[in-house]
Amino acid sequence: ICQKMNASLTSEEIVQDRNASVLPSVLDAIGNTPLVALDRLTAKAGLKGRILAKLENLNPGLSKKDRVALQMIRDAERKGNLRPGQCVVELTSGNTGTGLAIVCGVTGHPCVLVMSRGNSMERVHMMRGLGAEVVLVDQAPGSVKGRVSGADLDLVFDSVGKIVAERGAFRADQFELGSNFDAHYLHTGPEMWRQSGGTIEAFADFVGTGGTFSGISKFLKEVNPDIHTYIVEPTGCPVLARAAAPTCQELFWGSDPSHRIQGGGYSIEKLKMLSEHTYYTDGFMQVSDERAIECTRLLAKEEGIFGGFSSGANLSAALELLGGEHSGKTIAICICDTGLKYISTDLWQTDETC
Asked: In angstroms, rounded to a whole number, what is the distance separating the alpha carbons of residues 252 and 36?
C-alpha cells in the first residue's frame, strides 16, 4: 500500500513537481486532482462533520473517466492487445468517450464512440471536437428524451458489438477490463487518503460501471477497515440494491426505471466487475432526479463547484450520512464531471430569462 501511495512525497509536492516543469503531453496532466472541504455547505445545513470532494472535473477531459481511458489504453498497449494505429471503440454516456478521444488522439488510435441520443449533446460536440467519430443510437420506443432507460442502453451495447466486428477494432470495455478498477485502486483512492491526511471515515459514490466505487472502496478499506462505503443509485433504478435484496424488490424498484442522472443505472448483467467487489459495500442509498439537481445547484452556489448530475447525487448522499449515523464524521465523495456538459439539460435550464 505504501508503494501505491508514494508515501515519500506529499500530494502538494507531487502537484508542485508536476506544475514546475513542462509536461510531455496532456496525458501527464491526468490525475492528482485537488481534494476540497465543503465546509460552507455543511455549516449552512447545520451539520456536524466534513465533506471532502475530489475535484475530478479538473482533469483535461473534465471528468474522472480520463483516468480510466488512460489506464485502459496504456494497459492494452503494454499487453499487446492494442496494436499501433488500431481503432478503439466503446460505448459512453459521454465522459469515458471524452477521455478516450483525448488519449487516442495523443497515442495515434482512431476512436469510435457510441452513445444514446438520450444523453446531453454537449458531450457529442466535445468528443467530435477532440477528433473522435461519434455514433448516436436512437432511443427505444417509449423512452423520454433526456432520460436514459435500460432499454436505451441495451441498444447502445448491441451497436458497439457490431462496430467492433465490422472494423476489427479494440473494445475499450470499461465494464470488463480491470483497468477501470485499477485506475482508482492504484491512483484515485491513494490520492484521496493522502490528501485527507488519513481522516476519511466514509465514502459514498454514484455507481456507473462500478470502477470508481470498487477501486476506491477496496483501497480505503485496506488502509482502514473501519471506513464505511456506500453505493449511490437513482431512485426507481437501484439495480445493485435490488440484486442484494431480491426478496424485497418492491422496496427498491420503481415503476419508471428511466432517470436523468446520466452515467448510471446499468443493468446488473453489465456490472460484472462491481459484483466481484460488492463485499466492500456497507449499504445502498437512493437519490431522486430532483434531489440530485437540487444538490448540484447547491454545490455551485455555495462552494463555486460546477458539477454534473452525479456530483449532486454524491453530495446528497454525503449530506444524508452526516444527518444520520455518520454525524460528525468525515465523508469523501467525487465531483465526477463538469456541469458544462449539461447546459442544455434541465440541470441548468431554469425559468429565468436573460
From this structure: 32
C-alpha 70/C-alpha 183 separation (Å) is: 8
Query: pLDDT value at position 277?
Result: 56
Q: What is the average per-residue pLDDT within 320-325?
A: 98
Active site (annotated) includes residue 310 = yes
Residue in 65, 221, 270, 329 annotated catalytic? 65
Q: What's the average model confidence in pLDDT over 114-128?
A: 90
pTM over 0.90: no
Cell 496494436 identifies what position?
Answer: 83
Marked catalytic residue, from 310, 311, 316, 329? 310
Residue that terminates a domain, selected from 171, 198, 215: 171
Same domain, 34 and 112: no
Q: What is the mean pLDDT of the chain?
A: 87
Whether 21 sits among the annotated catalytic residues: the reply is no
